[in-house]
Write a structure and sequence with these properties.
Layout lengths: L3 E5 L3 H12 L3 E5 L32 H4 L16 H14 L6 E2 L2 E8 L3 H4 L2 E7 L2 E7 L1 E4 L6 E2 L15 E4 L13 E5 L3 H10 L5 E5 L5 E3 L9 H5 L2 H9 L2 H12 L5 H4 L11 E3 L3 H6 L3 E4 L2 E4 L4 E3 L4 E2 L4 E4 L3 E2 L7 H8 L18 E3 L10 H15 L8 H17 L12
Parallel strand pairs: 1-2, 1-7, 2-3, 7-20, 9-18, 10-11, 10-18, 11-14, 12-13
Antiparallel strand pairs: 4-5, 5-6, 8-19, 15-16, 16-17
Helix pairs in contact: 1-12
């Protein structure tokens, strides 16, 4: 009898996991709390609490050639970079092509995943769900956690003294949909990631002035590279990656800085990143022009807020601020896992290859898609899911526990040495 696998979430990671389970002779059941597939790629006009979605104008930062699953290319008439609606249609077509919808239980929330009393011997899990107020539980031989890295907003208000007295409006970028309502206002966008750059540039078309407040700076790269090719097709190659790994950190940093400054001198725009061996970057074709034309003004970190103004760490003050948008990212959350397992999962670098918990007696729980990559997430989660399902069916074996722990420790030391955030590098997807 085929081993039963529970999959939490029907986003990109969940769909890839379903497909790989079927390929490897497993019996999957996917639980999705919404009424459709696609996860954060489902656009909604009104933000839904507890659910992360794209804003109206989102276009992928990776080309279709580098974004597709290995056995399901995008149609030839698709543009190189994809509007979120096009990507969602692609995911729907993928699900239909491989009959994945037959294995998804929609409007079903997973509220508990616990080790079976005989877990040490069987590796089984008890999965409890709720559908339309009706609770149910079932025993599964393995679990694939696919609820992603964007489960919970990161809103660090404690780091911004005076925000509680600010008389304007402030909110997390999770609520942002489009520039409507910002006409004629003065807006501060806090952050230096892809969302911060997109939102600042887009709002500048309507607002009187937009201030982009960045604590660490970032390199800004165009989607269009040499001879008009997509950036990732030119630079995201195994050859380039191998060369960079062989170079000393100092030389590598200078080379990357030179590449990034080919388009414009970041020092003139106030965007030069705080120097470290980790090179943060975003793809944004519009932001440099907005800065050059004065629509967006780059500022350092906000030191504190007053009722109507913001005081920055360089001592400058901007008055009559109407809106503050915190583009400060997200945290992963695993409220359905038992506490000891959830604690181990929260830091992805505590996972072996960012997939398996090394301390589990049986390797029957895999975390898929909880990884930040400098490129598209789709091919990565496909490989993760393929590996995990082969571990589940016994065709692939994990190393001994002591080696797993050693590898995890090496990865943590590597990230610490290179000053890389513990959840990986900035994703450009």
């Amino acid at each position: 009898m085929a081993r039963r696998v529970a999959i939490v979430g029907a986003g990109v990671s969940g769909l890839a996991s379903l497909k790989c389970c079927l390929d490897e002779g497993l019996q999957p059941t996917c639980f999705e709390r919404s009424n459709g597939i696609g996860g954060l790629w489902q656009f909604t006009e009104i933000p839904e609490k507890g659910k992360t979605n794209v804003y109206r104008s989102v276009i992928t930062n990776t080309s279709k050639e580098m974004t597709c699953f290995s056995d399901f290319p995008f149609p030839e008439d698709c543009p190189n970079y994809l509007h979120h609606s096009v990507l969602l249609e692609y995911l729907k077509a993928y699900a239909e092509q491989f009959h994945l919808l037959d294995y998804i239980h929609f409007k079903t929330t997973v509220y508990s995943i616990r080790k079976h009393p005989e877990f040490t011997a069987t590796g089984q899990w008890v999965v409890c769900t709720e559908t339309n107020g009706q609770q149910a539980s079932a025993i599964f031989d393995a679990v694939m956690v696919c609820n992603g890295r964007y489960a919970e907003i990161n809103l660090p208000l404690a780091s911004f003294p005076g925000i509680e007295n600010f008389q304007g409006r402030y909110f997390h970028s999770w609520e942002y949909r489009d520039p409507k309502g910002f006409e004629g206002g003065n807006v501060i966008v806090i952050g230096a990631g892809s969302t911060a750059g997109d939102v600042a540039a887009e709002i500048s078309r309507a607002a009187a002035k937009v201030f982009l407040s960045t604590r660490r700076g970032t390199w800004v790269i165009s989607r269009i590279s040499e001879a008009g090719w997509p950036f990732d097709l030119v630079y995201s190659t195994r050859f380039r990656g191998s060369i960079l790994k062989l170079l000393p950190e100092g030389i590598m940093g200078k080379m990357l800085s030179k590449i990034c400054n080919r388009w414009f001198n970041h020092e003139n725009y106030g965007l030069v990143p705080i120097q470290s061996s980790w090179i943060p970057f975003i793809l944004n074709d519009e932001l440099p022009s907005c800065i050059l034309c004065g629509g967006v003004v780059v500022k350092p970190n906000v030191k504190r807020f007053t009722e109507t103004s913001a005081i920055f760490e360089d001592g400058t003050v901007e008055e009559n601020i109407d809106v503050v948008i915190f583009a400060t990212g997200y945290n992963a959350a695993f409220p359905f896992l038992e506490e000891s397992v959830a604690d181990a999962c929260r830091n992805s670098t505590s996972l072996y290859k960012q997939v398996f918990l090394p301390q589990l007696e049986k390797p029957t729980l895999a975390v898929i898609g909880y990884i930040s990559v400098t490129g598209s997430i789709l091919p990565v989660v496909e490989l993760q899911a393929r590996w995990a399902t082969r571990v589940f069916n016994g065709s692939s074996k994990l190393p001994p526990v002591n080696r797993l722990m050693s590898e995890v420790a090496k990865q943590k030391n590597y990230l610490l040495k290179r000053n890389i955030p513990r959840d990986g590098s900035e994703s450009i997807q």
